[in-house]
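Collaborator request, handled under Task 6.
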Amino acid sequence: MVFFLKILLAHFLGDFTFQPYKWVKEKEKKKIKSVELYVHIGIHFLLLFIFIGFDIQKYWLGVLVIVGSHYLIDLLKLYLQKIKTNRTLFFIDQIAHILVLVIITNYYHPFIISLDKIINEKTLLLLISIVLLVSVSSIIIKIIITQWNPESKKENDDSLAKAGRYIGILERLFVFVFVITNHWEAIGFLLAAKSVFRFGDLSSSKDRKLTEYILIGTLLSFGFAILIGVLYRYLATLI
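Structure tokens returned to the collaborator:
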């Protein structure tokens, strides 16, 4: 575990902390001819050398595999990525890097992942709760509030695409975490914070229907999250 945490820390520092945004843009522009790409790989090698320290003689092959695979994965990403695939390739890129780290760790320090310990009653209950919060609640709330369709909604809405949906999902996840960790007071702060940000929109619209529409959606969202959180805590105690 110590070895894995060291190389994982080296990866995060190399890929995020010590990689300026201008390097990323230069790599995207020049690809294999980019000097920044090779400096980036060199920083990864240096960080691995620093964190592994005197054990570098033992792990030299693993270090070479990590650095070499990092170069190839980054290069492949640079040639495959487009504007529409940037976000997807970013996550695939990070998963591939971390997977290499796991393989190298297992090579030097073999470990067994027991699915029986991971997939148990509490894990399944947590996964069901997350699905309820992310997907099921969104659909139920949408079905409930579709009976009201404020005519005052602006045709030229400046809001981000699907922003409301993601805000709803995040707020339910936050409320759920607050409930299961018994931090009820944080729910009040979250609700107050959302009210402050929403106040400008509601006051400028001067539309009572829109205000009620947003209020109903917010209360339903918080209500579902609290209900699911309470049910999770109760059922978790029975397992």
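The cover message to the collaborator said: "The chain has a mean pLDDT of 87. The CA atoms of residues 130 and 136 lie 9 Å apart. Please let us know whether this matches your experimental observations."
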